[in-house]
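Box S2. Input/output pair 1.
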Amino acid sequence: MEKKYMSQIKKQILQARGLEPADYVLKNCMVIDVFCGTIIHADIAICGNTIAGVGKYDGLNELECNGSYVCPGFMEGHIHIESSMLSPRHFCETVLHHGTTTVVCDPHEIANVAGIQGIKYILKDSELSKCALFVMAPSCVPATGLENSGASLSAADLEEVFAMERVIGLAEMMNFPGVLGNEKEVVQKIALARKRKVMVDGHAPGLTGADLQAYIGTGIMSDHECTTVAEAREKLSSGMYLFIREGSTAKNLEDLIDVLTTRNSHRCLLVTDDCHPEELLHKGHIDKILRKAIRLGLDPITAIQMVTVNVANCFGLLSRGAVAPGKIADLVLFNDLHDIRPTKVFCRGEEVKPGQVLPIESETKYKKSYPMVFDSMAVDLESLSFSIRAESEILRVMLVEKDQLITKVIEHAALVEEGCAVSDIKRDILKIAVVERHNSTGNIGKAFVQGIGLREGAIASTVSHDSHNIIVIGCNDSDMTKAVQVLVEQGGGLVFVCNSKIEGRLVLNIAGLMSTADVTEIANQFSHLLTRVNRFGIKTADPFMLMSFLALPVIPHLKITDLGLVNVDHFCLCSLWAEKKGEEKCGDISEIL
């Protein structure tokens, strides 16, 4: 192995000095220098999969670029690829054509369903693409003790995960109350990452003051949950990397663009967090965010730095992120600095061509290797009931707002029929439930949500962050029941049922989160599903993505799990009914921990 590297180094030196022609040369490029923030007119010499030099070169093979801009391959700093509903290899292949050559992902979605086996599947399947995929070890599986998931990862389990190739850090520490309360298991996970001297990602919406200082002081180095300029500035000035999120549901770029200055932009990244298939297919990936950032007034080179060299520095991927000697030859060519649209993409020195995904192992062998991934539905249909007995007059209701994951808590008079609280379509107060799907416990959390807009039927999904039980919203109990039954029968996915008829569906046969189909097929099926459901009064473009986050009990203020309503501010379960005399309030964080 040493001889192989020595041979490559010797060859690279000769080509960099011009003593031998380079393997490949991109001629007459306008090179984006991400180190100095300038543009250089030069050739780019490539030796194998590495940039040999930037200057004047001749090569055995040459591409005349005619003054095209060339920048480093884009780097995604934070995403859950499960949100794309694509298998890892299909996701990687899709984003590669949009200029993304490196992805840092947090596989805590599939880990909540299938544990370590799910992480191994992500790493194995991604090998079938040239796009480089790195993994952050999931820190919160499950996210809290206020729900049931399919798996649990302890600090001891993470020792095994960290030993895997391409695992480069500890993923977002969502359990910030556990950090602040010195919870033993949480502290052990952070200590494990610090011992290995790897990146620790954060997740602390709204955290400020002394609590924020304590959280950062443990070694947590980033946050992607900022929604205001003040919050972002406090976290930046306290030493965090700021990940500005612009995904399919949460869009923070416009609100945070004013945070960026020439003095702090090197500590900022542009990330997606979650990205749905139809956007990937029709609008793009990181390139789409770059175009929007530039339209909002961000300097184009600064924007490029935020998806290349800044990402490389943040995660210690120092062989990537720049057009410079010794860096991996991941390159993006484009013609307009103010409207970045890749015309050619090079990955590890080779031009990306359509259909370059390597052949997968036989489906039977693949499923045998990862049984928990491909057989993930265990629901007690016999005990399925969405009836809610009226215990009071006033309901606690989740209020959803457009393009935000934060929900508000409001109170409404319940609509009661035959002693049971039911959906109130006129006031857009619909029944919502979470059905445990991993261990046939029969658990069902039931509540109400306002702001969805559905006028008929029910929508349901096995994508519900982060434990990914079945979440369902409906106008009546019978359609809700039918929707859950359909999901169990098809092995997971999304469905819209109206008057007991299936109006649209999407099968997700990988852990109930992803599909083995390609991006075109998935995007078309998903688009058809959205078209059907949006005819029935839906108030958001993607109700399934929005619904999936209503089960995430780490984002304020009110959420729902299979155990019931969660008061996220106090990190505890709470009653569906407004406080009655003698009812105990939720305890504070110290009491809960």
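Box S3. Input/output pair 2.
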Amino acid sequence: MFYKLKCITCSKEYREQDTATNCLDCGDPLDCLYDFEQVKKRLNVYNLKNSSLSALKYLALYPILDFDKIVSLEEGGTPLLHAKNIGKDLGLNQLYIKNEGANPTGVFKDRGTMVEVTKAKELGAEAICFASTGNMAASVAAYASIAGIPCYVLVPEGTPIGKLSQTLSYGARVIQVRGTYSDCAKLAEEMAEKYGFYLAGDYVFRGEGQKSQAYEIVEQLLWKAPDYVVCPVGCGTNFAAIWKGFVDFKKLGLIDKLPKLIAVQPTGCNVVVKAFNEKKMDFEVLEKPNTVCSAVSAGNPLDGKKILAALHESEGIGLELRDREALDAGQAMAREEGVFVEVSGALPIAGVKKLAEENFFNPDDVIVCVATGNGLKDPVSALKILPEPGTIEPNLDEVDNFLKYKLYEIKSAGIGGKEVVWEKIDSKEELKEILSQEFHANFEDKILGEIFKDCQEFSAKGKKLSKSDLQNIIEEALSEMSIKEKMLEVLDFDVTSSMYGAAHGSIKIRMNGKEKEAEAEGVGTVDALITALRKAINHGDEMEVRLKDYNVEINTGGVDATVKVAITMQDKNQNKVVVTATSPDVIVASINAFEKGYNILWNKNQ
């Protein structure tokens, strides 16, 4: 046997038939140790240096015994992109992005899954079970499907739907758990023990596949190691695997130096970086991680000790960053380098930016950032700072407005987060100054008046205005520019509801200059008011506007959250419009959206 499994803490050795997860004595992770003299006999260096880039070309360096049982989707061979534009901004000439989102299921996990599912097949697994924050779920599900092995996936409730849709499509049996990743991992271990399933996850065989990232980086840099490798850290298996890959090549004499590693974690889940910076060799478990970087949201990282060891051995450093820094870095990668990554995959570029601003690097240092996953894995997170595009009517006048007011610039300048900025905006002059400073926008009095009116409505509800609130208000005011004439105006409403009875709503409107009132009941407050509103409108109205769809989005936490309502409306001529409205009050947002939609459709019919 050219390899053995050994506990990293107590050094006890195991057969893979007994455990391929953790030490049965102390519970710590296992490592796979090789007899490099035997490895050299298995390795054809000429073929290694002359064959095409692929994770499969490194088979001699994996603990695989039966090549006939290999389960592969042609993983690896991902591009190493020279990030010239971001590098120029930061004064770095040799900044690179290793784009792991180019793997078969869109994430670095595929490299480890190839080895792990192959080993499951070698060991005669009848089923696989494991915990995941989303990326591993899709990856293992894909490989298990082609291996013909059923797999059970435990994920924390609320895992990004993009990842779950992949996993379900591959035929995995997904169980959402009301708890953290650590809760899922513990339950998966219990399942494996009780039912005899193969326990997959961030364990020893996975790391052996993921170390191929380091091999490829060396090849792509013309058989030289970089000066620095920057990697996001969750469970830590990938980080430790990358370090091990460089060490392997050094032992084989294929490189003559090792890089320094930089571990990056979000502040809401910073357990390993915190321990390293406090000079500890173990970490404190974080029970409830809180970060938008879902792929690294592991408060009890299985390979935390391996990360700490790798950081010390490589003389590396640990960084923690705010979610906002990762989100902004993701936008920079997309706009300046054409690389769309999930938020966790942007942490390395955010870390490099922070260090570059502190003059940490030399201009010619070779720096490789590992972008761990494709942005389509979690597109919702990117939208936290990217509002929906505005909508115009199909005529050139509206294009003129788009260009005149530089709406494209407003959207990019308006990426401002959810932090509270203004208690209250007291005058149009103050508002004009804010719009100029924060959004690079200068509006004519009519539009400025509409924006100010909406700001006053927020304040009247007792809501402090955040920059994102103001962003939505601006967009809604601009979206109404196409309304030449307002046929409908809601003047006031009143609504009551109880736990068991129907809601009752009364509404007062101005329709074509005439005031009207109506009452109605509904299954809820919004339904009652919309029914009353349609009843008031339909006194002599011939448009027959119908509500086709209704969606509510709450973008912030707390009871004073801002609510965004999107509704789809259609008239009898099949004209359809999708409109949005924002308010601290879901009922106000709903009524405002309906009013806007009706007026747009009325103008279409003239």
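Caption for Box S3: The chain has four domains: 72-108+206-381, 109-202, 396-481, 489-604. DSSP finds 22 helices and 21 strands in the chain.
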